[in-house]
Specification:
The complex is a heterodimer. Chain A contains 7 helices and 7 strands; from the N terminus they run βαβαβαβαβαββαα. By secondary structure, chain A is an alpha/beta fold. Chain A has a single domain, classed as Fe-S hydro-lyase, tartrate dehydratase beta-type, catalytic domain (fumarase), CATH 3.20.130. In chain A, strands 2-3-4-5-7 form a 5-stranded mixed barrel. Chain A is globular, with a radius of gyration of 15 Å. In chain B, 49% of the residues are buried. The longest helix of chain B is centred in the N-terminal third of the chain and has 20 residues. Chain B has a 4-stranded mixed β-sheet with strand order 4-2-5-10. In chain B, strands 6-9-7-8 form a 4-stranded mixed β-sheet. Chain B has 2 domains: 102 residues, no CATH class; 126 residues, no CATH class. Classes of the chains: A alpha/beta, B alpha/beta. The interface between A and B is large, with 48 and 49 residues.
Chain lengths: 182, 283
């Protein structure tokens, strides 16, 4: 069964999500990947205000390709999440409610997800052209100089993803592969 | 054979087309393997992931948009005929101009930074390309070009094995590397293996192996059998499509080899995602 969630995501929504659930997200999400995370993390360490308020948001780890004329956005599939592991707990502590990426996370990130009642979604890596169909518009929020790595706001409609790690720390990357191991 | 003059613009044009084509149109070998895997995959989530990948690759081809947002670093294997003379500029400059044009005019992502450690400033045109040139006899230039994404590149590894490790040691290192990569490199993956040569030759062969169609085998039957055995072992690991569980973790294993030193047996494993993109042309 596929669950539909209208953003912003609520604490109740998060509590009701279980690892393995298929989800369609509709509403507003922000984006950020390596270089933007590094800058945000440095500001947090210096005790400075961030150029984007992450409270209540979901962040999508993506660096899109440019949009062809006539398209709202270019192909935009997830990038590997583990590269953001160093930075993620600080953002979750600031009120970020979840992340969308692909691949495994560190124990520190999982602990922070549980502590802050957050969720880690994954989208299908390499399905960028398909995923882009569910992104209706984009706006640059900050770090325009980073090009593809700039922080954007996406308006999404039925954005397809799967709950990889739920708010209780259940993790599909731990539970599912062993079922198919021979 | 007489010297043949080739205008650098012709090289630029060919490289531009190869890089745009490989980013829009997935190879028939990969599409066939994905379709076959959809039939044999037992995990419901795995089947759904394969459906989405197949649909994605069809959308990319029909709309001529990149199938993955990571349109990669441009990597070229070039067989350069020794009777060829490039006019109006150097060969490398002509290739990089082709990269520049493909990535700007083809709406491909610019993913290259100028300095790896300190500056990390985007070069904004995806140059420079990684160019492997081999001088061969003849008056033609053969180019195989691809866009190599780094989600899978980062999961690659090299080890300087020594002769006493034998074939069992080779297998173990390859399988350990794939296991450590787990769900991260966008499975189902293509595994390129380079064995022999020197440190850098093994790595180069591993990349070259990822550029070989997966419906081919190493011409030496012993390595061909090893390719099949490794593919079967990898698909028993359980990672499955997108790493969410299943029996399709890899679509193919390609091995390339080279003579090596009496003291050595280097093994390099270059992992490629299901978007294994490459295209070839002869000028």
């Amino acid at each position: 069964m596929t669950k539909k969630i209208t953003l912003p995501i609520t604490d109740e929504d998060i509590k009701n999500l279980n690892a393995g659930d298929s989800v369609l997200l509709t509403g507003s999400i922000i984006t950020g990947r390596d270089a933007a995370h590094k800058r945000l993390f440095e500001l947090i360490e210096q005790g400075k205000e961030l150029p984007v308020d992450v409270k209540g948001e979901l962040i999508y780890y993506v660096g899109p390709a440019p949009a062809k004329p006539g398209y709202a956005v270019g192909p935009a599939g997830p990038t590997s999440s583990y590269r953001m592991d160093k930075y993620a707990p600080s953002l979750l502590d600031l009120g970020l409610k979840g992340m969308i990426g692909k691949g495994a996370r560190s124990q520190a990130v999982i602990d922070s997800i549980v502590k802050n009642n957050c969720v880690y979604f994954v989208a299908i890596g390499g399905a960028a052209a398909l995923i882009a169909k569910s992104i209706k518009s984009e706006e640059i929020l900050c770090y325009d100089d980073l090009g593809t790595e700039a922080v954007r706001r996406y308006e999404v409609e039925d954005f397809p993803c799967i709950v990889a790690i739920d708010s209780r720390g259940n993790n599909v990357y731990e539970t599912e592969p062993p079922k198919y191991q021979k | 054979m007489e010297v043949r003059f080739i205008n650098s613009a012709e090289i630029t044009k060919a490289v531009k087309k190869l890089l745009m084509d490989c980013n829009y149109f997935i190879g028939g070998d990969i599409m066939d393997a994905l379709t076959r895997a959809r039939g044999t995959e037992t995990s419901p989530v795995g089947k759904s992931v394969l459906d989405q990948i197949i649909e994605n690759d069809k959308i990319a081809a029909s709309e001529e948009i990149p199938l993955c947002q990571d349109t990669g670093m441009a990597v070229l294997f070039v067989e350069y005929g020794d009777k060829v003379c490039v006019e109006n500029g150097s060969f490398d400059d002509a290739v990089n101009e082709g990269v520049r044009q493909a990535y700007s005019e083809g709406y491909l992502r610019k993913s290259v930074v100028s300095d790896p450690v300190f500056d990390r400033v985007n070069t904004k045109d995806n140059t420079p390309a990684i160019i492997h040139t081999k001088i061969v006899s003849g008056n033609k230039i053969h180019i195989t070009a691809g866009g190599k994404g780094f989600g899978s590149e980062n999961m690659s590894a090299i080890k300087m094995l020594t002769p006493s490790y034998g074939v069992e040691g080779v297998k173990q290192f390859i399988l350990d590397t794939v296991r450590a990569a787990g769900p991260n490199p966008c499975p189902p993956i293509v595994v390129g293996v380079g064995i022999g040569g020197t440190f850098e030759r093994a790595a180069q062969l591993a990349k070259k192996a990822t550029f070989r169609p997966i419906n081919t085998h190493n011409p030496d039957s012993r390595y061909a059998e090893l390719e099949d055995e490794l593919l079967s072992e990898i698909n028993k690991m359980g990672f499955g499509p997108a790493g969410l569980g299943g029996n399709t973790t890899a679509l193919g294993v390609n091995i390339e080899t080279s003579p090596t030193h009496i003291a050595g047996m280097p093994v390099a494993v270059n992992i490629c995602c299901h978007a294994a993109r490459h295209a070839s042309a002869t000028i």
